[in-house]
Inverse folding.
């Protein structure tokens, strides 16, 4: 493979990647610096595929960290190209225009190491389909930041699918926080492949802790086309436990948990600001003092996410009523997502709303405008003794 450029997306540069845990600090900055280091070491340009910043309204530090990386690329004479994602999208003045070096490639054809690349900022459904039709016929690689049905399936409200794309046979995609490739047919019926590098650091306990960026290259064998190589990022260590039985609880609290955390810290090779690991524990709430024992055993050695397992087999609490059906679904979602996650809280708000369609429109509008999620603010972990935010 002849390397052409580095592609990454969903950096979400911000002091803390976890909005509910400001003490988890510096993850995105450290990953971003690794990507810049790699580009400079290997003399490769960089394409940023949107959601470079977490917000539309930013404080000074994430902008300063962004500009530090861009200035390093400028000093090395390695070009940076970008599109906007929905998180930082501004139709009139893109945030990355604060620095003179990066090139905005929205609706612009750019030749990078002999390859024709075309970019599209995030666009709402309808506009993005029209933009796909305007992609130049000779484009080799399309850069996008959309909610793709090909990634999401029937989950949620998607904006486009690969059959909407004209002419192109390789798409590099931001927005999806998972490292994944999919294949389909484009609007002309030709094979098309889409590559997602995923996000550069965890923002939720439900994410895969393994994070990557991509090196995109041209094939050097007898076949035409492009290849990619995922490059792993060094990120904050993460581990999880499910504690259902008294024996495991006793073992963890007797020293196993403390030793595991110590080992993660000693062998991580990470800088101090992201050396403290994240530990997620789901526990049987019927075990006496489980929550207090687990949290006490961890102390300040890790960022702990501790939540009670929901007993989905407790049929005595279920009824055949509409409310009972909703409770069954909420129980299943709590088991799948964790009842402390933003995904669960948003789903719970939709399920319990009198008009789910209207509620979805409201939450979607707030998400696109970077406003707080009311559903997340109003849901607390009262079962564990922590009051909800709405009661504080």
């Amino acid at each position: 493979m002849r390397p052409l450029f580095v592609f990454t997306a969903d950096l979400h540069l911000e002091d803390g990647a976890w909005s509910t845990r400001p003490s988890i600090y510096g993850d995105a900055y450290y990953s971003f610096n690794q990507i810049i280091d790699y580009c400079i070491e290997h003399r490769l340009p960089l394409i940023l595929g949107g959601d470079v910043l977490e917000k539309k309204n930013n404080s000074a530090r994430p902008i300063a960290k962004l500009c530090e990386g861009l200035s390093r690329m400028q000093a090395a004479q390695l070009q940076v190209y970008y599109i906007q994602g929905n998180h930082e999208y501004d139709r009139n003045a893109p945030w990355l225009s604060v620095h003179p070096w990066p090139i905005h490639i929205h609706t612009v054809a750019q030749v990078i190491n002999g390859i024709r690349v075309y970019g599209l900022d995030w666009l709402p459904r309808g506009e993005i389909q029209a933009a796909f039709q305007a992609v130049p016929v000779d484009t080799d690689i399309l850069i996008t930041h959309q909610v793709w049905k090909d990634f999401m399936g029937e989950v949620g409200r998607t904006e486009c699918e690969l059959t909407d794309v004209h002419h192109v046979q390789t798409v590099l995609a931001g927005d999806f926080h998972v490292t994944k490739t999919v294949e389909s047919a484009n609007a002309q019926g030709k094979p098309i492949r889409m590559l997602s590098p995923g996000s550069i650091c965890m923002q939720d306990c439900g994410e895969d802790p393994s994070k990557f960026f991509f090196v995109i290259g041209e094939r050097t064998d007898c076949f035409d086309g492009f290849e990619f190589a995922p490059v792993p990022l060094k990120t904050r260590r993460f581990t999880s436990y499910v504690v259902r039985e008294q024996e495991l609880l006793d073992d963890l609290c007797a020293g196993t948990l403390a030793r595991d955390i110590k080992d993660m810290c000693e062998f991580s090779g990470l800088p101090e600001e992201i050396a403290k690991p994240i530990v997620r524990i789901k526990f049987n709430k019927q075990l006496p003092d489980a929550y207090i024992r687990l949290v006490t055993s961890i102390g300040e050695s890790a960022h702990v996410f501790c939540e009670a397992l929901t007993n989905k087999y407790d049929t005595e609490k279920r009824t055949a009523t509409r409310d009972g059906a909703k409770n069954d679904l909420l129980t299943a979602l709590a088991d799948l997502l964790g009842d402390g996650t933003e995904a669960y809280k948003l789903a719970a708000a939709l399920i319990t709303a009198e008009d789910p369609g209207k509620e979805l429109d409201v939450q979607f509008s707030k998400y696109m405008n970077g406003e707080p999620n009311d559903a997340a603010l109003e849901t607390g972990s009262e079962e564990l003794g922590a009051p909800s935010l709405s009661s504080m």
Observations:
- The chain has a mean pLDDT of 86.
